[in-house]
Amino acid sequence: WQRWSLHDEL
Amino acid sequence: MNVFRLTGDLSHLAAIIILLLKIWKSRSCAGISGKSQILFAIVFTTRYLDLLTSFISIYNTSMKVIYIGCAYATVYLIYMKFRATYDGNHDSFRVEFLVVPVGGLAVLVNHDFSFLEILWTFSIYLESVAILPQLFMISKTGEAETITTHYLFCLGLYRALYLLNWIWRFYFESFFDMIAIVAGVVQTVLYCDFFYLYITKVLKGKKLSLPA
């Protein structure tokens, strides 16, 4: 798994 | 985007609108913790600074603007317009006991030691405990207006739906964010006793009253 680089959630 | 995240966002939006309408229509913020609303305004402000730096989608940007706008409008209604109806005596939770540890944790445990990332992490941690002053106030007054319980139910449901969204994204997109997930679990767990009271009492038409 990887981490989200850009927080695309609210 | 998946169905859990979309319904989660809509549940969150519904909660924010329900609260704003309740205060505006009844011209009263009785039973509402102004401290929790200030914490939510801080949560949105620190989390959505990326409005200035990155564009993700029309949906993302418009929802962030709506959340921030409604949060500050709610704080304005509580502390300015209808401040005569603000029940400061029962809204006595010491929020510094939340903000300081959360701030320290955000500096220690984060994905990236950068300004925006630490603010985002602070916002995630703060949101998980921001409802405590409101739940504390209800435990002190021993009751809550039914419309307030609907607000709290939608607000609690939103992060529970986000937990399902993260399971979905882990399974289908093999991505997950431990900080958001752990904070989301804590946040949802804090609502459990309220959910129990809401389902066993409010949904049966009774008023939500706690054994004082």
Keyword list:
heterodimer, A: 10 residues, little secondary structure, 0% strand, B: 212 residues, mainly alpha, two-stranded antiparallel ribbon, 2% strand, globular, ER retention sequence binding (chain B)
In a few lines, what is going on in this structure?
Chain B: One of its GO terms (cellular component) is endoplasmic reticulum membrane. The complex is a heterodimer of chains A (10) and B (212). Chain A has 10 residues and is low in regular secondary structure.
Could you walk me through the main structural features you see in this protein, from its secondary elements to its overall organization?
Chain A has no helix or strand. Chain A is low in regular secondary structure and 10 residues long. With 212 residues, chain B is mainly alpha-helical. Chain B has one domain. Chain B is 71% helix and 2% strand.
Question: Which helices and strands appear, and what pairs or packs with what?
Answer:
The complex is a heterodimer of chains A (10) and B (212).
Chain A: no helix or strand
Chain B: H1 3-26, H2 34-47, H3 58-81, H4 96-108, H5 115-129, H6 132-141, E1 143-144, H7 146-173, H8 178-190, H9 192-200, E2 208-209
Antiparallel strand pairs in B: 1-2
Helix pairs in contact in B: 1-3, 1-7, 2-3, 2-5, 4-5, 5-8, 7-8
GO biological process, one term (chain B): protein transport
Keywords (chain B): Cytoplasmic vesicle, Endoplasmic reticulum, ER-Golgi transport, Membrane, Protein transport, Receptor, Transmembrane, Transmembrane helix, Transport
Protein name (chain B): ER lumen protein-retaining receptor
